[in-house]
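Sharing a chain and its predicted structure for anyone who wants a worked example. Both blocks are below, sequence first, tokens second.
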Amino acid sequence: MNLQKKIVLSFLIMVLTPCTVICTIGLLAMRIGLHGFRTGEGETLAILTQPVAAVTRLTHMEYNELNTAASVYPDRFENGKWLEEVNSGLSEKYSYLVVEKEGEDIFVGNGKSFGIVKEAVLGAITSRGAAFDGAIYVNGKNPVFVKLGSVNYPDEKEGFFLIITEASVLYNRLYNSFMVGVILACLLIGLIAVSLIAWINASIIRPLEELRVATRRIGEGNLNFKVNREKNDEIGQLCNDFEEMRVHLKTQIDQKEQYEQDVREMISNVSHDLKTPLTAIKGYAEGMLDGVADTEERRNKYLKTIMVKATDMTLLVDELSFYAKLDNNKLPYNFEKVNAVSYFGDCVEEYAVELEMKDFTVKFLSEIDPETMVVVDCEQMRRVMNNLIGNAVKYRNEEVHGEIGVKLTDSGDSVRISVTDNGIGISKEAQPHIFERFYRADKSRTSGRAGTGIGLAIVDKIVKEHKGRVFVKSEQGKGTTISFTVKKGAMKTNGS
């Protein structure tokens, strides 16, 4: 249920509940209080709208029966058993019977009550006081309604009967019942109000308070918490959006912190990698200035060493500059269709002589159709091969003869290129991270293996720009295989 419906429903409940509850419970309590009160249809409503008429009608049937008996069976008024039965029926209607004969009371249904009102009743009968629908109203501390009927006894003596209805008892019972109903209604309304408050608090107030606390925590820089909201209303959606924002902010901050940490490590690595050739260049230059290189051969050796170290520094700087362009998507790509076997075979051939001089055996194997075409940027793909073969050389196992294999296999709509070595391998813990920028599986700088930690990140970035994927499989001490895929182009046909 959305927030608007909740507010409308709460308003309707607050408006309609008091009226409905008070009326329902009030009328129910009155019906309980008026148990035995029967004046026909709508008797409970009649006692509220026309109380006098309702009370006078209360004993209307009994009064008619007594009048009939006085005319036809006057002897019954001297039958105590019959009078007790009639009085028993009247007592259920807050009334009692009084029978007189020649000024003497021969039957009094409620002696205590009649003793209190007798004088007033007899006075009202004598004076014929205010009558309502056949009943005489006797006012006073204990008001009653009196219905009078005459009796001519069989012995020709005269008398009368009275049906006395105790209005005060009826009204007091009615009042007490109504008050009980009001109290019950108030309790029920209070319970409903508390339930509504709890509902609104749980649905609106508490979530807003949680959002306020969460906002303050974010303002303090604390993002290590979670905003939970299961309901799918406006507040729940707001909480979900807030949680998504928190996660997004935390991810950005974590990435920023990781990037800054990577940059610090990269600067430290680069500083070390630059310091080593710079120290060598400085040492050889000082040797030449001090006259240590006193022969032409030694001077040439010193100059060649200086050139090699300067070249290493240039390559290092170029690699950092290239990755900056690659990371900012400022590097243009020039894709073209080339023969896969010829292109990657040429790439391996370029490194074959140099690798043999470094005591490496290089093998190239193709298991694809010789006419297979792939779509690549030739310059950038050569950089990929250079980085992979360069890593194989850099992380060689000094205890064994170096071997590097390049293999082409068919992979459906792609060609898979695998570069395998028998080097020191990569630990299982490091394998998921080796394509992250500035990551170095070998954290120690004592190994003498220079690098920025972005070579494989460059490989991953370029391969992804070619719509391919990169895979690694390695075992420490046995070697590493890094594979990547490139999309196929159109196949050459005979005579084309």
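Comments welcome. The two ends are 69 Å apart (CA to CA).
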